[in-house]
Amino acid sequence: MRARLVVFPVKGRNWCFSRSIDPLVSEPASSLTPSTFKQLWHRVSSSKNSNHLELLTDFISLKMNRAWVGLETAPQGSLKNKIHGLGLKLLARVKPSEIFLKSISKEVTNLEVNYPSSLNARLVRRRLRHIARRGTIIHKNYLYGSVSLLPLTFAFSVLPLPNIPFFWILFRTYSHWRALQGSEKLLLLVSDHSQSQNLAASNTKASADEGNRSENETNKLPASSWVLKPSSELDELVRRTDKDDGLSKCVISEICKIYKLQTIDVLKYRDSM
Fold first, then answer.
1. How many other CB atoms are found less than 10 A from the CB of residue 111?
2. Which strands make up the sheet holding 226-231, listed edge to edge?
3. What is the pLDDT of residues 93-142, one digit of tens each?
4. Closest CA to 175 of 207, 210, 135
């Protein structure tokens, strides 16, 4: 599956990394994910080759999504509605880079990177490698930290109130795990050996030994795992930036409309330090 990434500077040294929302590409059907503990146990016990950890995380994700929908549709002024408002405030603090890395799912095998034509292609790819490599370190540490807090927050279950700390830490654990998986996938797709394979395919003077070595190193990647596409239209929009405030909300909204991005996530890049 090909994912379309959009990369551009938003304010000073702050760059936006976002994935386009493709309506033609649907996520795995929830019917394939077990919805009860009985179904989960049956899938785990009957399947020997499947990844049991992924089944468990998909099961937890489905439960959390259904619980969130229940909070979202709660009547105004109710306890569930207040919890939903608190959840929105907490989610607003999630860094946009984490949201971006979570969007790189395991199904992604190709990348189409759109960036302003005035930027150097090597700099764009270097920035992508940096955010991927940094994500593998940061989210691995946060994942271990979140897992260590789960038993502590679970102790609050004895109180006659919704255990918000436990469910928030559980969500953060899942979120960091997804971001870690996305970081590793992105790093694999934009790594140096992926580029060497693309260059070797177009270089007719490459030696046979070098070509075989490149093929062995990238046996898990397609012949072209990423494509850099400079955009003059995006470059014209980015040139409207202000030296102090960066891109305005109007320009960001226009970019998001053209490239099908989440405006809220892009604005986070501009407002982040």
1. 22
2. 14-19, 2-11, 110-116, 226-231
3. 889 999 999 999 888 888 999 999 999 999 999 999 999 999 999 999 99
4. 135
This prediction's pTM: 0.73
d(CA 97, CA 12): 17
Q: Which residue has the tokens 């109710």?
A: 78
Query: pLDDT of the chain along its 273 residues, tens only?
Result: 888 999 999 988 889 999 998 654 444 444 455 556 565 556 656 666 556 556 666 666 666 666 656 666 778 777 777 776 777 787 778 899 999 999 998 888 889 999 999 999 999 999 999 999 999 999 999 999 999 998 998 887 777 767 778 888 888 998 999 999 999 999 988 885 444 444 433 343 333 444 444 344 434 444 457 888 999 999 999 888 777 678 888 999 999 999 999 888 888 888 775
Geometric angle at alpha carbon 199, from 194 and 202, rounded to 5°: 135
- Please tell me the distance from the alpha carbon of residue 48 to that of residue 83, in angstroms, as a whole number: 40
Both tokens of 62, joined, read 């489905």
Who's near 175: CB < 8 A, 6+ residues apart?
Answer: 94, 98, 102
